[in-house]
Structures are given as C-alpha cells and as structure tokens.
Design a protein that fits this description.
alpha/beta, FAD/NAD(P)-binding domain, Enolase-like, domain 1, 3 domains, five-stranded parallel beta sheet, 27% helix, disordered C terminus, FAD/NAD-linked_Rdtase_dimer_sf, oxidoreductase, FAD/NAD-binding_dom, Nitrite reductase (NADH) large subunit, FAD
Length: 422
C-alpha cells in the first residue's frame, strides 16, 4: 500500500474482539483489504478465538492454543492495530472518539460495536463468593481448572448447551457435578420432554447428576463458596458454582452514548444504529426486537455490514429461521422451528429406544413447521430445507421420518412446493 492509499483510508474501529469481530475483519479484508485503517479493541488478553470450543478445552480434549483463530501477531501482519486487554469506557459521538481504560483516546470514521454479551444474573444470594463464576471465556476455563485441582464438588446452574458442556467438562476431570435447571427437562428451548429425558440419561451415564425443576436461592460459605441451597430447601456441597443461565447483551456502552435499543443496541436491516457513524453486530445488537445467541445469524450480520461498508452494497439482513445443530458430549442434536407439540400440530415421531434415537416432525397444513432430532441427525438439513421452502407433504408421513431416500429431492420439491413419500 502506498502513502496515497494510506491517506485516503477510513478509520474503522471495532470495539470487541469475540467471534463476531473476528469474522467481521475477515469479511472486510475479503472485499477490500486497503479501504480501511482498522483498529480492534478487546478487553480480553487474547486474540480472537472460537468460543464454541471452550468445552473441549475444559474437558482436556483440546488446548487453549488450538482454538485461538487470530493470535496477536495476526493483526499487525494484516495491517491492523490491536489493543488487547483494553476496555472502552466511553464513546464521544460528537468527536468520533472513544476513551479507553488505559487513558488512550482512539479516533474513528466508523465504529462497529461488537461487545458481545455476558452471563445473565440469577436471583440468588451471595454470588460474590469466590468460586461462583461464569463459563464464557478462556480465563473462565483457566479459573475452573485451577479451582478443580482441589475441588471435589461442583454445581452448574442452567441446562442449556453451555451448562451441559460445563458440567461434562468438569465430570471428565473427575469432579462430582450436579446440574440444577429450573425447567423439567434439559435443552428445553430446543428439545421436547421426551428427547430431553434421553439427553438426561446419556449425561447421567457420563457422571452428571441432576436437580430439575429447581433453582438456586443462595450460595453459602465464608469468602469461598461451600454449598448452594435450592428451592425446596436442599443444600448441595460445592467448591465451584458455574452460572450458565443465558446471556445479557453488553449494550450499556452504546446506551450511555445515547444509542437506541431495549435489550441490545437497536440496528436496522443494514446493521446501522441510530447514529449513522456507528453499526452494531452480534450478541450486543437487537434487530426487530430480537437479540442473538447463535453463530449463524451473526455471520449474516457480518456479511451484510461488510457489503455496506466495503462495497457500498445494501444487502439486507433478514431474521430467518435457524437450525440449531448441537453436539453435547458426543450426542448429536438437531432442532429447528417449533419443538413443543400443541393441538395445532400434526406430530410424527420415530423412536429407537435401544439406540437412543428420537426423531419428531411437527406439521401444520401438511407443511413441516418443527424438527426435533436426537442421536441421529442425518437428514436434518434436508427436512430443514423442506421447512424453509414451505413444501407440502402429501402422504405417507411415517415413511417421511425414515429420511431423504424415501422422499423426492429438495430442488424438485421446492419447485413444485409438494413432496410425496415413496
């Protein structure tokens, strides 16, 4: 790049260095590697890493080094400035600058908020005790591993994917783990009660105990957590308590600067905020009242915003149905659309108890509106495409669950909007 190019570059500042920010810089470079002078500020001491892979690091199946996608040197090698372990404390919109906790002030022509999220709080007492913590970062994993050297008992609060992964990771390390979940079954936002019960059986065989339909009301101990009291009065011993009950957008920095939003920083179809010089992506953002916790829509955020900033092309983000593909301690789960059966649905279920396989399709007006697969997720994407296209399923519904070999091809079905099982 010559001096003339450098002088005409726009100053692009990305606040946050999680998976959304990492993908964002990739998308920008792919479109125009010289258009922006990019600065990335992240409050963690690491480069961008794959947060989805924290569980294998906790269980010992992977290493911290292996999940770092962009080490600190990568940014300089690609012409960017990277401030690691630095927190932005104020946005000065009129001056187009941000103030950092290290005293530095950074200018921008355009600012991208990618500040992510934090674990949601629970209404339990004494959460400030040592050992009560989250499971969101590499530093959290390091803390759990350090405590785990002497810990005998742990509890995990939350039966979603993150909670299950944390419980499995500690159980593999030989810690006695109990998972507390306020719902009556696990993964209750992706699975129905039948498939949730299958997952509970599998996890129990892997060494995790459960207290379902319970909540923690208080943590107990002298400086360090020693036990947790549940609704109903039961007290469980614990040296580690991991809270994994969902996420809250890190939107306060934007709100304090006057950006609009309710739970997250509000963006339009092109990821622009109420300030045209500021965009927001990922878990800190809110679009049409929806916030985000899955990877796929966040990748779409990055694509749309990169098109607008680097190419001046307006590619609208659309909040489309997303298939949830999970791997919980070796168990495959695929869920999309509706997952709970109501009197408005026609339900088709296949279950192989011996092999822990469960497949359920939900239909309305002969169209698939919900998919729940557990244990064997082959053809999950096929059924998702049928659902996306609104294909009419005309006959032989039991055979439909046997998979793609019994059905017409998706392209043909999509064209005719009709599919018949063989």
């Amino acid at each position: 790049m010559n001096n003339n190019q450098a002088s005409t570059q726009q100053k692009l500042l990305i606040v946050g260095n999680g998976m959304a920010a990492g993908r964002m810089v990739d998308e920008l470079i792919a479109r125009d590697p010289h258009r922006f002078s990019i600065t990335v500020i992240g409050d963690e001491p690491h480069g961008s890493y794959n947060r989805i892979m924290l569980s294998p690091v906790l269980s010992g199946e992977s290493t911290a080094l292996s999940i770092i996608q962009k080490p600190a040197a990568w940014y300089a090698e690609n012409g960017m400035r990277f401030l690691a372990g630095v927190k932005v404390v104020r946005i000065n919109r009129a001056q187009k600058t941000v103030d950092c906790d290290n005293g530095e002030q950074v200018e921008y022509d355009h600012l991208i908020m990618a500040t992510g999220s934090r674990p949601a709080r629970i209404p339990a007492k004494n959460q400030d005790l040592t050992g009560v913590m989250a499971f969101r970062t590499l530093d959290d994993v390091d803390t759990i591993l350090a405590l785990g050297e002497t810990a005998k008992h742990a509890i995990v609060i939350g039966g979603g994917l993150l909670g299950l992964e944390a419980a499995y990771g500690m159980a593999v390390r030989g810690i006695d783990v109990t998972l507390v979940h306020r719902s009556g079954w696990l993964l209750n936002r992706q699975l129905d009660s039948a498939s949730g019960a299958l997952l509970e059986q599998v996890m129990a065989h892997k060494g995790v105990r459960f207290r379902l339909s319970r909540e923690v009301v208080s943590f107990n101990g002298n400086r360090r957590v020693e036990s947790a009291t549940l609704t109903g009065g039961e007290t469980l011993p614990c040296d580690i308590a991991v809270i994994a009950t969902g996420i809250t957008p890190n939107a306060e920095l934007g709100f304090e600067a006057g950006l609009e939003g309710k739970r997250g920083i509000e963006v339009n179809d092109y990821l622009a905020t109420s300030d045209p010089a500021i965009s927001a992506i990922g878990e800190c953002s809110e679009h049409n009242g929806e916030t985000f916790g899955l990877v796929e829509p966040i990748w779409q955020h990055c694509t749309s915003l990169a098109d607008r900033l680097a190419l001046n092309v307006r590619t609208a983000y659309k909040n489309m149905p997303v298939a949830t593909k999970l791997k919980v301690s070796g168990v495959q789960v695929f869920s999309a659309g509706d997952w709970l059966t109501t009197d408005q649905h026609r339900e088709v279920v296949y279950q192989d108890v011996a092999r822990n396989i469960y497949r359920k399709l939900l239909l309305k007006n002969n169209r698939i509106v919900g998919i729940v697969f557990f244990g064997d997720v082959r053809d999950g994407q096929y059924f998702f495409e049928l659902m996306e296209h609104g294909v009419v399923v005309t006959q032989a519904l039991p055979q439909l669950l046997m998979g793609r070999a019994f059905c017409s091809e998706v392209p043909q079905a999509a064209a005719s909007k009709e599919v018949a099982a063989a």
